[in-house]
């Protein structure tokens, strides 16, 4: 069975006001003192109002769920010692002046990309799924392309930006799309062609390193995995687990298609960009662009098409029932964007939204 790992980025906020706080250095120092030299789970991110953690590779989704809940709770504990809190929101609902980290890499990004770097206070969720080789990994990338926009719609958790409703479900996806290397990609056809494309992009001098290959899905340059990077960080940890379950199903389904000689869908990058825009705009409300037909269809129909597409892989991994239940709960209760807007209508203020989401972050 393929292993799965998850990286989540969290916002650090003032426990009383809900405003983002540049405390990642202090939190990481506290973690380091307590860990006694053990491998670090938490890492700094581009902005000091963010904290990232990564799980170990897991084959059981129950074990993955336990890790996500555990590390969210640990992050919250360390933040609480500083009068702060962590919250799984992909953008800050309240106005914020982002503070870029002091590392050499982050300073280079600010110098080269200016306002784009300054405004990248966004939190995503990255799912790693093991593959046997780069050749298998690229075959997977070629075949999952049309389905990535559905994952974005399901995870959408960033309706607010600088104190205003953006009118998007995932405004993070719009901000992230400002990087020149981000978004959907072409069909590569082989691992050699993939690596050639990456080398050519680095050869332009516009990108610092392979870490800036910001494709919606890519080969990890650290692990033998396909890394799906399209999603917002999810408000509820159960949604993160559902996302990871479906991503593993997509990877396994694509690998089986490749071994069976089935070619990837030939949708052009232009169509995939439109599908991603619609997913970021609509989330699970209204219509999405169907990955097979590339025509509008109700969001629920599209989400269920994703489930049907990976159902055989889910059956084989023992995840089909939990995925069914998770999808039903998500479609009924809504993604993070809908929950945030519902909270605003009840609380009357964005601070109330953040306060409630702090509680929901632990699940």
UniProtKB/TrEMBL annotation:
<dbReference type="InterPro" id="IPR050141">
    <property type="entry name" value="GCL_type2/YbdK_subfam"/>
</dbReference>
<comment type="function">
    <text>ATP-dependent carboxylate-amine ligase which exhibits weak glutamate--cysteine ligase activity.</text>
</comment>
<dbReference type="GO" id="GO:0016874">
    <property type="term" value="F:ligase activity"/>
</dbReference>
<dbReference type="InterPro" id="IPR014746">
    <property type="entry name" value="Gln_synth/guanido_kin_cat_dom"/>
</dbReference>
<keyword id="KW-0547">Nucleotide-binding</keyword>
<keyword id="KW-0067">ATP-binding</keyword>
<protein>
    <recommendedName>
        <fullName>Putative glutamate--cysteine ligase 2</fullName>
        <ecNumber>6.3.2.2</ecNumber>
    </recommendedName>
</protein>
<comment type="similarity">
    <text>Belongs to the glutamate--cysteine ligase type 2 family. YbdK subfamily.</text>
</comment>
<dbReference type="Pfam" id="PF04107">
    <property type="entry name" value="GCS2"/>
</dbReference>
<dbReference type="InterPro" id="IPR006336">
    <property type="entry name" value="GCS2"/>
</dbReference>
<keyword id="KW-0436">Ligase</keyword>
<dbReference type="InterPro" id="IPR011793">
    <property type="entry name" value="YbdK"/>
</dbReference>
């Amino acid at each position: 069975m393929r292993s799965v790992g998850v990286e989540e980025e969290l916002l650090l906020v003032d426990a009383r006001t809900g405003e983002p706080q540049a405390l990642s250095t202090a939190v990481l120092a506290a973690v380091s003192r307590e860990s006694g030299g053990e491998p670090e789970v938490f890492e700094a991110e581009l902005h000091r109002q963010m904290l990232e953690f990564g799980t170990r590779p897991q084959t059981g989704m129950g074990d993955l769920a336990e890790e996500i809940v555990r590390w969210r709770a640990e992050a919250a504990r360390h933040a609480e010692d500083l009068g702060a809190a962590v919250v799984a929101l992909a953008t800050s609902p309240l106005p914020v002046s982002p503070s870029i980290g002091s590392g050499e890499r982050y300073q280079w990004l600010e110098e080269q990309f200016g306002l784009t770097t300054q405004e990248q206070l966004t939190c995503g969720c990255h799912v790693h799924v093991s593959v046997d080789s780069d050749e298998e990994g690229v075959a997977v990338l070629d075949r999952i392309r049309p389905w990535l926009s559905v994952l974005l719609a399901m995870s959408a958790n960033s309706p607010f930006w600088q104190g205003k409703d953006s009118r998007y479900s995932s405004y993070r996806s719009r901000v992230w799309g400002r990087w020149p290397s981000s978004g959907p990609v072409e069909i590569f056809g082989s691992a050699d062609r993939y690596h050639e494309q990456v080398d050519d992009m680095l050869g332009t001098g516009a990108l610092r390193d392979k870490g800036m290959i910001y494709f919606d899905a890519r080969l990890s340059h650290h692990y033998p995995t396909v890394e799906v990077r399209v999603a917002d960080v999810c408000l509820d940890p159960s949604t993160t687990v559902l996302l990871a379950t479906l991503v593993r199903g997509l990877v396994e389904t694509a690998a089986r298609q490749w071994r069976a000689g089935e070619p990837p869908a030939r949708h052009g990058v232009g169509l995939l960009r439109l599908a991603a825009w619609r997913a970021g705009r609509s989330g699970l409300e209204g219509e999405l662009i169907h990955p097979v037909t590339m025509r509008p269809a109700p969001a629920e129909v599209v989400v269920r098409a994703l489930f049907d597409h990976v159902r055989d892989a889910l059956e084989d991994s023992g995840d089909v029932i939990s995925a069914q239940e998770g999808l039903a709960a998500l479609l009924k209760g809504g993604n993070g964007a809908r929950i945030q807007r519902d909270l605003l209508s009840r609380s009357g203020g964005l601070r109330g939204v953040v306060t409630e989401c702090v509680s929901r972050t632990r699940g």
